[in-house]
Amino acid sequence: MKSELRLGIAGLGTVGAKVAQLIERKAELLAERVGRSIRITAISARDRSRGRGFDADGMAWFDDPVELAEKGEIDAFVELIGGADGVARQAVEAALSRGIPVVTANKALLAHHGVALARLAAENDTEILFEAAVAGGIPAIKTMREALSANEVSRVYGILNGTCNYILTRMEKEGISFDACLKDAQALGYAEADPTFDIGGFDAAHKLAILTSLAFGTEISLESIFIEGISKITIADIVAAAELGYRIKLLAVALNTDSGIEQRVHPAMIPARSSLAQVDGVTNAVAIDSDLLGSILLAGPGAGGAATASAVLSDIMDVAGGFVPPTLGLPPSRLQPYHRARMRAHEGGYYIRLAVFDRVGAFASIASRMAENGISLESIVQRKADRRAGEGTAPVILVTHDTTEAAIRAALEGLSRDGHLSGEPQMIRIEDLD
Amino acid sequence: MKSELRLGIAGLGTVGAKVAQLIERKAELLAERVGRSIRITAISARDRSRGRGFDADGMAWFDDPVELAEKGEIDAFVELIGGADGVARQAVEAALSRGIPVVTANKALLAHHGVALARLAAENDTEILFEAAVAGGIPAIKTMREALSANEVSRVYGILNGTCNYILTRMEKEGISFDACLKDAQALGYAEADPTFDIGGFDAAHKLAILTSLAFGTEISLESIFIEGISKITIADIVAAAELGYRIKLLAVALNTDSGIEQRVHPAMIPARSSLAQVDGVTNAVAIDSDLLGSILLAGPGAGGAATASAVLSDIMDVAGGFVPPTLGLPPSRLQPYHRARMRAHEGGYYIRLAVFDRVGAFASIASRMAENGISLESIVQRKADRRAGEGTAPVILVTHDTTEAAIRAALEGLSRDGHLSGEPQMIRIEDLD
To answer: Could you tell me which residue ranges the ACT domain spans (chains A, B) (predicted)?
Structure first.
């Protein structure tokens, strides 16, 4: 059996403590599987005195994680502090500069600085592993970086945020409003006190930025992602989607198009019979289209201490085994610059829900504004007007054939100028997944 | 860059030729990703003269694959001949005996001789890689052996045979009989001229035997699998399943129970809303339940030249990278003996379709036979009798609450003795997947 692998862990919150507990509890199993024992030799966290469910005797304590990374007697550094900058970044840089491999669950760090860190790793003949940073316990990174290593990927997409999926699932199944679901999610610990990062689509965007780089061999470009959150989705949209044979999910999509790469995170209507539509609650899913495999789908827990710890341990086992592919799938020098596709040119069907004043000429205006922008309609449904509040307002639901977002926006602006809309129109992309 | 990896490939059928073509076509990409170039230095196939879409100049030709394995100037041996015994086995044993790692897509070889081969590999300090042997392009082996390396698995199950899934999907969607679907599958190349291996459940059983060993750290036990094929499934069953909210799939299941391991391959009714129920056509799916991850699901192409070649290449890349986990996830000496669970004791709901003579006393007999075997019924549906052929025969569909197969069989034997059944009863397990 090879010599033991000495680990330094910085950050002992839910995930970090779970990793340490599992290394203690499953020591024998892990050693048998990788042919080498794994031992934590150094730790760092904010509060030294707190009990964390594992025996820290014999582990060197560092108040400063950067010092641990710089001076700890370790063969691998596990960063579970979080945050794109600050000590997490400094500690990771310190470890890589010593040629020590880094295991991290830090999506923000990678989405913002992944290419620079991959370069630093390569310069020091080491790598970064980050299975836990994307889609929790789903082996998305391993699949992309190893299982698909002979493939060229054309599209990667999925449901990457458990909070949003939990809220949308409950809205659909129980008919509860977005605000009420969000409150429940916060009470259950599925959403933060400030939920913007999740429900605004930013968390999913960070994960997508990393997947995109692995998928297409390009530099990471978080700032190029079109991001729209779920807070404007109403029960009316969810009901209309169901009637049309769709379900609404917060979808993250990256496509390799002729004009460049398209990355977007937004609510989408997907066919109710598709595999992705069955992904409910806090579950995540990643689908990958590639030249040799066609389509594959991975689904599983997107978050949670045990699932995230499982992914961190899988990376630690890979380090113990001795081989890790290049951080971003290719040597950093071979990553292509990111070229952004013309987003407005994306063709697809759209769902549009309008609140229209119930008066003569409204329907004619809708029809002509759509026609003048070259939009053909697959279906139009007008509900009965609600006349309780003075002049009646009728909800009108349109489903378009393939068109562009630019055309839709122009048509809606025209309609608004015509004075027929009593409120903001809702527009949701339709993704006709297989 | 490290020295090149020299490959010997034995077997140049659809998959073998595709692997060789891809190594030629994607040479640069593969070398960049693994930091090492990959070159085929030796080949063996039945017919030397046939063109196969790649340039064989500079590759040593062997008429005998065993000789290639014994004497080829190679760093890894790729076995794509097939068959549990004969030259495939001899060649693999020859390569392992030289300490050369083996990449294979041969499920029969592994299901029958996997443990002995794993021992031979370990004795010679090498390993066998077999991603392509189970579920084609789905990274089931990599996920089980690497991504879940810190997990203890409690259940692995899935749809492991594309031919059966294609037939069942078409029967359901188009209302075509089993025989007609089978003929189409044969015409399309989805089924062999002798389809027994696929539709009898044996192909799925081979794959399950391998997954079970990886899941539970036990020796492989193909002979312990309860196997039932799909040839008795009728359109009537599929229609009844849909009415009850289920779909019928050929399911492969391995469970770790208190009394031992249960392995079975049989048609099952699974909830129509489950993720597995959406897996249509030739697609495969593998679901794994484990302590840390809860449940994960992988779905993708279960067969086909490109998908299988992709899995073979993923293994070749792992060999090039230099680390491979133990063949069966643990050193062979640590594999536990296989203990078989008492199959008849498996509790679950059952669907039963009876053809009952439409006469006084039939229903009373059903009710009392079920009651005396402790079976409670969730639903009973009796259709109108068909009186065209003399004495009428009425189809009766029963859905039971949780019971055992032994109880069901006893009740059906009682009913048969009572003389009320006009034909063989149909019995399909209900699997209430999440």
So the answer is: 351-426
> Nearest Cβ partner of A278 from B137, B278, B296?
B278
Architecture per CATH, domain A140-302+339-343, reads as: 2-Layer Sandwich (3.30)
- Would you call B300 and A291 a contact, using CB atoms and an 8 Å cutoff? no
Chain A, residues 122-161, CB within 8 A of chain B, namely 131, 137-139, 142-143, 146-152
Q: Hey, is the C-beta of B34 within 8 angstroms of any chain A C-beta?
A: yes
Secondary structure (3-state) at B348: strand
> Which residue shows structure tokens 């081989």?
A323
| Multiple choice CATH, B5-104, 3.40.50.40, 3.30.200.100, 3.40.50.720, 3.40.50.280 | 3.40.50.720
Residue A336 at interface with chain B, using a CB cutoff of 8 Å: no
pLDDT digits (tens, 9 = 90+) for A312-366: 999 999 999 987 889 999 999 999 999 998 765 667 899 999 998 888 888 889 9
Does the distance separating the beta carbons of A278 and B292 come in below 8 Å? no
Interface test with B, best of A134, A310, A328, A434 (most B CBs within 10 A): A310
Q: Using 50, 70 and 90 to split pLDDT, how confident is the model at A166?
A: very high
Structure ipTM = 0.93
Residue A379 in contact with partner chain B when CB distance is under 8 A = no
Residues of chain B with pLDDT under 50: none
Q: Which residues of A touch B291 (CB under 8 A)?
A: 306
Residues A310, B293: C-beta atoms closer than 8 Å = yes
B364 touches chain A (CB under 8 A): no
Residues 6+ apart with CB under 8 A from A165: A159, A249, A250, A279, A280, A281, A282, A283, A284, A302
Residues 6+ apart with CB under 8 A from B51: none
Q: What is the mean pLDDT of residues A2-6?
A: 92
Angstrom distance (rounded) from CA B205 to CA B297: 19
- CATH level 2 (architecture), domain B140-301+337-343: 2-Layer Sandwich (3.30)
